[in-house]
Amino acid sequence: MKMITAIIKPFKLDDVRLALNDVGVNGLTVSEVKGYGRQKGHSEIYRGAEYEVAFVPKIRLELAIRDDMVEAVRETLRQAAHTGEFGDGKIFEFDLEQALRIRTGEMGDEAL
What we know:
Layout: E1 2-8, H1 13-22, E2 29-35, E3 42-46, E4 49-53, E5 56-65, H2 70-81, E6 89-95
Antiparallel strand pairs: 1-5, 1-6, 2-5, 3-4
């Protein structure tokens, strides 16, 4: 099993969710986060005053998936979140040692 964490632009969330549903992802966790990468934030003008936004709003997705789905999920995330602009995000993959469904007690792939 793998844990996939993706950081994407907020307006791409619906596109990504629909694309992941199409490849068989049954669930994901979504968090609103802030951060910066190479873009180092940006300037905005609000009520006539310019100010620096150091942390850019992003969406963090977390998905626990079977090993046989990794390639499809990675490519789906890449395509659905892509805009070609700075700040499109990142995808991280981690080995997931165990999963347990609390309601039924199922473990491993069955718990996903």
